[in-house]
Amino acid sequence: MQNEEFEKYLxxxxxxxxxxxxxESDVRTYLFKQKVDPETISKIIESLVDDKFVDNARYARAxxxxxxxxxxxxxxxxxxxxxxxxxxxxxxxEPFAEIDETEYMSLLENLLKSKLKSVRGDxxxxxxxxVFRFAYSRGFEPELVEKVWEKLR
Length: 153
Prior knowledge:
Structural class: mainly alpha
Order of helices and strands: HHHHHHHHH
Helix content: over 70%
Radius of gyration: 21 Å
Low-confidence stretches: none
CATH topology of the largest domain: Arc Repressor Mutant, subunit A
């Protein structure tokens, strides 16, 4: 019976991983919701890693790329999201290095320009506070936001 359960949930987990890139944490959560016992979950994840269905480094690369290009997130927010998924800083280092700095600064500049257009009011302090809060909520580093702000003003 135990082997049948393992095979059944292994197949489900493989199908789950085939739909989109997943990390170990995603698979663990998925199987936990399926009410699979922790020992079986560990064996299934081990099997998935061995068969290359799950690869945290590959997941981190895809996540960083997508979060930067599509969500327009900064490195701080991306890092926090990956840490929440159980991805280590060591694994994150390579994908972060792949982000082009000129693209990163260009994205931040475009986001700040866009936000400036939508901010209402005459008080310079309130405008700056609103723009900075927006940039921080997107996960951009304070020193970079300050640098781009000075360039825009």
